[in-house]
Specification:
alpha+beta, Umud Fragment, subunit A, 2 domains, eight-stranded antiparallel sheet, four-stranded antiparallel sheet, 12 strands
C-alpha cells in the first residue's frame, strides 16, 4: 500500500523539478535576450526620430530611422551619407541629422546655391552633383553663400537638404568624426514612408 504513495510523491517531485528547470530556462533565455538587446542598442543599432524641416523632403518630422553605429568604426564617412551627430551648445546636448557634403582635406564653398568642392590635392573646384535635393524646397538664397572652408583631418562638413532651413556646418563649423553617432540607413516608420537612405 505504501508503494503507490511513494510513486505519487516521486511523480510530484519530478513535476516540481521539471517546472523549476523550465522556469530557470526561461530566466536564462530572457536574460540573454535582454543582454543582446542592450548590446545591440548600445553598440550596433539605434533609432532616431526626426524633428524639424532641415532635411525636407528627404526626411520629415516624425520619420523614424535606424542608425548603424558601427559604420564609422569600420570605415570613414562618405560624401552623401545621412548621419546623426551630437551637437553640444552650452549646457544643451542634442542629436541632429544631416548629410555629409565635404570630407577631410577638402575645401567647400557655396555661391548662388551651387556647392563647389576642391578635393585634396586638386587645383580646381568642381560643382557637386546633389540629386537628393528637392528643387521645390530650395529657395533662391539656399541659406546664403559662404566663403571657402577647409575641412580639417578627422572632420566632415555637413548640411541639411533644406539648405535655407538648416543649422549645420555653415553655423557649427566642420564636425569631428568622433561626434558622429552613425549612419542613418533606412526610414522604418511610418511604414508608408519605408525606404533606404
Amino acid at each position: 500500500m505504501d508503494a503507490p504513495a511513494d510513486e505519487d510523491r516521486s511523480r510530484d517531485d519530478e513535476e516540481v523539478g521539471a517546472g523549476a528547470r523550465a522556469f530557470v530556462d526561461w530566466i536564462v533565455v530572457v536574460a540573454v535576450a535582454l543582454t543582446v538587446a542592450f548590446l545591440v542598442r548600445g553598440f550596433v543599432l539605434a533609432h532616431f526620430v526626426v524633428e524639424g524641416s532641415s532635411m525636407d523632403t528627404t526626411l520629415a518630422t516624425g520619420d523614424r530611422v535606424f542608425v548603424n553605429k558601427l559604420s564609422y568604426r569600420l570605415h570613414d564617412p562618405n560624401r552623401g551619407d545621412v548621419v546623426v551627430l551630437h551637437q553640444i551648445s552650452g549646457t544643451n546636448e542634442r542629436d541632429l541629422i544631416k548629410r555629409v557634403i565635404a570630407l577631410p582635406g577638402e575645401t567647400i564653398e557655396m555661391t548662388n546655391c551651387e556647392v563647389r568642392i576642391t578635393e585634396e590635392g586638386a587645383t580646381e573646384s568642381r560643382v557637386l552633383s546633389e540629386p537628393y535635393l528637392d528643387l521645390d524646397v530650395i529657395s533662391a538664397t539656399c541659406g546664403g553663400d559662404f566663403e571657402p572652408v577647409s575641412v580639417p583631418a578627422d572632420h566632415v562638413f555637413v548640411m541639411g537638404d533644406n539648405r535655407s532651413g538648416s543649422q549645420d556646418s555653415r553655423n557649427l563649423g566642420p564636425i569631428a568624426e568622433s561626434d558622429l553617432v552613425g549612419r542613418a540607413f533606412v526610414v522604418f516608420w511610418p511604414s508608408a514612408d519605408w525606404r533606404w537612405l
